[in-house]
Amino acid sequence: MKLFGRKFGKVLFLGIITGMVFVGFFYVLYNPESDESLYNVPHDVDKVWTEKQEAKSTGLTRVMASAPVNVLNKMEESRHLVVNKTREPELPILVWWAKVSGSKDHTAQCGSVQCTVSSNQSLLGHPNTQAFLFYASQIIPYRLPLPRKQNTLWALMHEESPKNADAMFNFDETLSLFNLTSTFKRESDYPIPLHFLPSLEWLENQKFMVSVQQKNKLRQQGLAPVMYVQSDCGAPSDRDTYVKLLQKFITVDSYGPCLNNKEFPKTLKFNRSMAPMHSDEYFEFSARYKFVLAMENAVCDDYMTEKLWRPLNIGAVPIVWGSPRVKDFLPSNTSALVVNDFATVEELANFIKYLDSNDEEYKKFLTFKKRGGITNEFLLTHLRNRDWGNRMYPSQRTKPYYSFFPGFECFICQKVHTINEKLERGEKVPNYQASLSHYGCPVPKKFNDVGKATGNSENWIRAWRSGQNMGIAMKHFYSQNITVSRNIYDDYWKKLKNEDKTNNFLQKQMEQ
Q1: Quick one: how many helices (H) and strands (E) in the chain?
Q2: pLDDT by residue (tens digit) across 499-509?
Q3: What are the domain boundaries of the chain?
Q4: pTM of the model as a whole
């Protein structure tokens, strides 16, 4: 009887294991979750290094098109374990030297070519490593992939403003070290100015819109015409100063830590996380307002974030301070109020009051929400032409990449293959060179008493100069093709700082 029990136990155990394997397989095969978080890469373990085009159409690739991210990551890890044990990779290798959190090693299928993408820094000296990718805010200036080999690309990515990368990338001293870029600026090699705009459908969507009649009732009940939500106080753009000036002439309900005069419902507080600001509840809450202040943290060409696009999505009129070229991307000529269009803050306040009391004039700023109401061909063309998109939206499902990150990787992968082909044919290799036009932002200015950004800011002149000196120090050791310790780097950076004091750099800049 005991023997039977043992045999039965073994059979039962094997049955459970087999069942779990089949359940896992069919979960991957039939799970209908969105594929918006997946890389567009082949996953055939046996053929991944040897077959380029055929791998794209394997059954397992189609399975992975609907696999959830956690399943994908586990299969990716196991795939690389198998491949790395059997043979060395023969594809060009792209190494994320300064990576974004959560990136996984994978093989990128980029049209007709492939590349291995890894964050393993030990691949620095691998003969197939041909490009290093850097996420700007993660760069450690004294820890670069040196010595640098000839024809090895350095590619920089950042969708955020340079303020979030210690202001180092506002200067040629830093940018000149890189070949290719992907930033919010249209001059970038792989430009992503619309990185916060999911799709045309999202922009046209009326899900959260509140009627003008209902907004008028809310105004009568004490709701301000203007809403302001900000947690990053004292930003380079000096937005808080402008809002203070505006409040002298019109009521502004200010949520969040900056200029706070209103409290969110408990469910929308974001002390520890920004997640509530992405919820339907937050969108519904904000949609009650006629106007929402869309004030970026920095004034940079083409730098536009969710602060601009969110009000447009919910049917509120954004009051915009940020990119001087923002009108190039607005849905129509009447869809936003741009601070630069008004001579004074009082003039802007008076126009807000005018729209607040004239429904028909206010409604003109919402006509773009109607089908076919987006008339800006520049915006429409940019959305059509970009090779990535959120696959939750029908117009984006034919895009090769689910986001700009794999799109950027493939952009670099294709450049690497172009270089290799030219070298094989004995042709001249293209000279790819990043420049200030790809990313840099000017030194921030302060608002004067009437709301014009004309004054020098001592704090931001100092911060920008500090970033420039960091770049000078980084280039100093780069030019010697060596890596150094943090102490050696800091000593050189402090030397530059002391030279500025001796030369009265700050005082001279303030006097300009």
Answers
A1: 16, 13
A2: 998 888 888 88
A3: 26-192+400-441, 200-385, 461-511
A4: 0.80
